[in-house]
Here is the input.
Amino acid sequence: MKKLSCLLLCLAVLLVSVSCAATPAIFTAEGLSLTLDTTFEVLEAPKHTFSAVSKAHMYVVTIDSESFANLEKLEYAADMSTADYAARALEKNEMEAKIQTRKDIAFYTYEKDIEGTAFTYMATFHRLGDAYWTVTFGSESKNFSEAQPQFWDWADTVTYLRP
Here is the structure.
């Protein structure tokens, strides 16, 4: 009987955790697709191509792009690597961070204080279609280590929908 009670308790915990999991949701912005979850709400943020926040997790995601044509006008090579583009982004934003690569995605992390709360962001860089895309994931710094594996799961879903 004791084993059965333990088994039922474990099953109940599993069912509750599964039912609390958010359902995947696909978001698109100017031809870029990204799978997040249904806890995200799209925000109006004129500074970004796309911006969304999950109040349930206290996560934020932004997407920005820069066309190859624009880079060439600024005398940058349109065929630079994503790591080179990440370095350009750091320079443009007057920031310093270590650029790393994971699964052909260049990225760096940085911290920023917003209204007295420390946030950590993971900026990922993608070369898709006719542009470089920066997809940035962020959370409160105290939760970043726990959030980063989920951010990578989402970063791995970035695809370009246009031919």
In short: The chain has a mean pLDDT of 86. Strands lie at 24-29, 32-37, 40-42, 50-54, 59-67, 100-102, 105-114, 117-128, 131-140, 159-160. The first strand starts at residue 24 and ends at 29. The longest helix spans residues 2-20.
